[in-house]
Design a protein that fits this description.
Elements (H helix, E strand, L loop, with lengths): L4 H13 L14 H9 E2 L3 E2 L11
Antiparallel strand pairs: 1-2
Keywords: Oxidoreductase
GO molecular function, one term: glyceraldehyde-3-phosphate dehydrogenase (NAD+) (phosphorylating) activity
EC number: 1.2.1.12
């Protein structure tokens, strides 16, 4: 999933409907750290209330 504006909205809505979902892959040119920040601090739709943690990379 590409996490531009539409992708972030879809991801937020999916996790609001079913919080047991686990996102295992995101296809984007931006680093995962930046994507987590953008999701957590969305200036248009407010802060994301779910967990936006990154797994330890090998």
């Amino acid at each position: 999933m590409d996490l531009v504006v539409i992708g972030r909205l879809v991801l937020r809505r999916l996790l609001e409907v079913d919080s047991s979902l686990e996102v295992v892959a995101i296809n984007d040119l931006t680093s995962p750290k930046v994507l987590a920040y953008l999701l957590k601090h969305d200036s248009n739709y407010g802060p994301f209330r779910g967990a936006s943690t990154l797994p330890k990379m090998r």
